[in-house]
Amino acid sequence: MKRVFWLLLNIGISVFFIWLAVRGIDFDELAKSFWGVSIGFVLFSVALNLFSCWLRALRWQYLLLPIKRIRTSRVFSALMIGFMVNNVLPFRLGEFVRGYALKQSDNISFSASMGTVVIERIIDVLTLLMIFGFILLLFPFPEWVKNGSILVAAIVAVSIFILFMLVKRTDWTLKLVHRVVSFFSVKLAYKIDKIVKSFIEGVSFLHSAKSYVIITVLSVVTWVTYIYVMYAMFYAVHFDLLYQLDMLGATVVMVFTSFAIMIPAAPGYVGTFHEIAKQSLMLLNVDKEHALGFAIIFHASHYISVTGIGFFYFFKNRLKLKDALHSADVAEQPIN
Question: pTM of the full predicted structure?
Answer without folding.
Answer: 0.87
